[in-house]
Write a structure and sequence with these properties.
Elements lengths: L1 H16 L1 H22 L8 E4 L10 E3 L11 E5 L4 E5 L4 H22 L21 H31 L2 H5 L6 H31 L7 H25 L3 H18 L11 H7 L3 H12 L7 H29 L2
Parallel strand pairs: 1-2, 1-3
Antiparallel strand pairs: 3-4
Helix pairs in contact: 1-6, 2-4, 2-6, 4-6, 4-7, 4-8, 4-10, 6-7, 7-8, 7-10, 7-11, 10-11
Length: about 325
Amino acid sequence: MSEFFSLFSAMWKESWRDRIATFFSVAFPVMFLLIFGFIFGGSGESVKTAVVTVEYDLSDFGDVYSSLEEVEGYYHEVAVVERDRIVFIRNTTDEYYQSLLDSWEMSLKTKVERLFNRLNPVIVVKKKPLETTRQLTAFDYTLTGVIAISLLSIGLFGTVDVFSHYRERGFLKRLRATPVGNFSFVFGLVSARMAYGILSTTIIMVLGVLLFKAKYELNVLLFLLSVVSSVLCFIAFGALVSILFKKSEVATQVSVILFTIMMFLSGVYFPISFLPDYLRTVALFLPVKYGVEVIRYSLGFEIFTFTRYLFAVSIMFGAGLVFVFYTSSLILRKED
């Protein structure tokens, strides 16, 4: 046990000494959180609208008043429906709300025209709200993406740094002369990265609450399971990069390229549905896609079945565990 704590302590300190890994694991995600947080922090709120009318039932379009003088409080837009015209009063210049309000105006015009001409709708749509996870806002999407990117950088850069740099310095050869086994070394590395990942996500989430009033429907057990499985999968990915590229400089540069690709093609900052079909296919093979999905699910943002969540976490955890120890033992065995 003392051997494990010694290795854990050494790996923990090494994590903070590595400037590149620390930047991409903590500073870079926090920087993105602040930039996108101030851009999208106020967005995602539903538009507040009101309708002034005495002739029609337009309660589906917001609060209804019989006169403009009765309107109280702030509304993004107020529509005054008269007999032969509709006067729209828009009270915001925020770009986020413009398209939403434009759609609201078009729907309201269509409804008033139908009522004015006494036309009955061919299809009647009844809205029934589902009791499910709440809708993901632009800031929620960014926040969960920042968490996933932080975990990716912890697993990818941290592992590449340990195996590639340690191999060049001859540390792995000297390790063979000590009573420390391969399993203990890798377990110490993985445990330190797990703790690092939990600390990093905690910092990001606390900043989200303090600065941008973020709200989570946090399931602590599922969230920890998501973090652990994601970090384990990303560590295995980093170990694979260390095997394929021997020189530390090359391995680091390749890691930066892969990091950038996965950051923009894995649904981290915008939905994968925005991508062309061929890039959507590429996204299916990127581990970050599944990491960010399980994180969003554990925070109450993503909507899919619990069975799918368990399947994704099991695959990431199982494959990551097997692959990280296989690739790690392969790297260490080559140093014999």
